[in-house]
């Protein structure tokens, strides 16, 4: 509820107003600070303040990894009443996405090495969760794909090929990868791999601009729509549940001067992954809340031994107050998508066109911006659709 005003401002493009309303919440050191840091960092990114956004996400990253410290009274309160009484430590998927947003900030600041570090840290976190917590995580195709583009922009073609190939293993349905694998297999002088991909993707033909030394690339990092919303489960209000959000704009075209528009390809669907991840972990929460019901019954029984009516009333109050903890990173996008256009070095007018599920214009677009392209380098553009 406290974020609703900021969210409305984001939808209306009033990014600065959203930042101002979230700043005091994010700076307040209380049990809810982490979730407000998530929202604040997102708003700053949308407002184009990438440096400050990264400072906020770094603070969120540190806060999310600090060992839990809860007072005895708050732990007892969470058992007797609800989870909202204890410090919010973030869902696993939220902790991972901190690094994704940090990587995008660094791309926009043209600090590619730092962006690559964040992409690697993202996958390291996933591996840690898989090993230590025995959670069914795989590496992120988004992190791998961002890393591959960064290696390619830096002329590290073999490293780029490895990450494009790893992305393909994680998600072979990304259309961009067909050209990426063939292009980088040749540039990395991996002849066997080149023959393999040419057989697998006969529709891909070598484009002469891939060999041009004076060409660079404009890359759109498109954050589409709104991620899932956490609400009480309709079947049991004591437990939270993630629900998908509707977005009119489903994908987009990258438009660069007189070049043919380039459609976006979905790299990572946050909504699908987070809902599945959350559902995989719900058993732990159910076990905890079942234990809480026992604590309530014991506490009420102790009161009932002195006053039956008061004991019954106490149990009723505790059950009614046992509400789902619905705190979450509510300003996440639904998906990350990528579009790319290879152009001669120079300065270009760049915009986007938001499209509905049926490829009709949605009315959303990126205000025209000037982008400088250097030879053999990638220039990144970040855009978020919110309707």
Question: In words, what does this structure look like?
Answer:
This protein is of the alpha+beta class and 387 residues long. It is built from 13 helices and ten strands. It has helices at 4-11, 15-27, 33-46, 50-65, 72-80, 92-108, 112-132, 141-153, 157-170, 176-187, 191-200, 270-306, 308-320; strands at residues 215-224, 229-233, 236-243, 251-256, 262-263, 265-269, 335-344, 346-355, 369-373, 378-385. β4 and β5 (262-263) form a beta hairpin. α4 packs antiparallel against α6 (92-108), α7 (112-132) packs antiparallel against α8 (141-153) and α10 runs antiparallel to α11 (191-200). The longest helix has 37 residues, at 270-306. The chain starts with a helix and ends with a strand. 40% of the residues are buried. Residues 67-82 have low confidence and may be disordered.
First CA to last CA: what distance? 19 Å
Shape: globular
- Content of β-strand: 15-25%
| Strand arrangement across the biggest beta sheet | 6-7-1-10
């Amino acid at each position: 509820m406290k974020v609703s005003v900021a969210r409305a401002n984001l939808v209306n493009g009033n990014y600065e107003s959203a930042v101002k309303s979230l700043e005091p919440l994010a700076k307040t050191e209380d049990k809810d600070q982490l979730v407000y840091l998530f929202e604040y960092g997102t708003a700053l990114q949308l407002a184009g303040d990438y440096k400050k956004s990264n400072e906020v996400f770094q603070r969120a990253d540190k806060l999310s990894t600090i060992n839990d410290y809860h007072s005895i009274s708050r732990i007892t309160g969470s058992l007797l009443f609800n989870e909202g009484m204890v410090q919010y430590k973030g869902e696993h998927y939220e902790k991972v996405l901190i690094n994704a947003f940090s990587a995008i900030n660094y791309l926009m600041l043209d600090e590619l090495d730092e962006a690559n570090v964040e992409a690697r840290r993202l996958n390291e976190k996933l591996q840690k969760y898989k090993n230590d917590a025995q959670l069914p995580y795989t590496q992120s195709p988004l992190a791998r794909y961002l890393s591959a583009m960064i290696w390619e922009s830096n002329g590290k073609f073999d490293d780029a090929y490895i990450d494009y190939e790893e992305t393909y293993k994680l998600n072979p349905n990304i259309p961009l990868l067909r050209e990426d694998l063939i292009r980088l297999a040749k540039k990395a002088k991996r002849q066997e791999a080149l023959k393999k991909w040419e057989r697998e993707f006969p529709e891909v033909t070598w484009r002469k601009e891939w060999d041009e030394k004076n060409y660079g690339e404009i890359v759109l990092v498109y954050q589409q729509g709104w991620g899932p919303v956490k609400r009480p489960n309709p079947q049991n209000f004591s437990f939270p549940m993630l629900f998908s959000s509707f977005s009119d704009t489903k994908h987009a075209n990258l438009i660069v001067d007189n070049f043919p528009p380039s459609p976006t390809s979905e790299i990572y669907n946050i909504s699908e992954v987070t809902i599945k991840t959350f559902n995989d972990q719900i058993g732990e929460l159910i076990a905890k809340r079942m234990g809480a019901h026992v604590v309530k019954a014991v506490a009420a029984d102790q009161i009932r031994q002195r006053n039956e009516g008061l004991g019954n009333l106490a149990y009723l109050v505790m059950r009614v107050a046992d509400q789902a903890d619905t705190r979450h990173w509510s300003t996440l996008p639904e998906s990350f998508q990528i579009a790319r256009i290879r152009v001669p070095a120079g300065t270009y007018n760049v915009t986007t066109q938001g499209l509905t599920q049926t490829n009709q214009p949605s009315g959303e677009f990126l205000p025209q911006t000037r982008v400088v392209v250097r030879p053999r380098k990638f220039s990144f553009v970040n855009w978020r659709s919110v309707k």
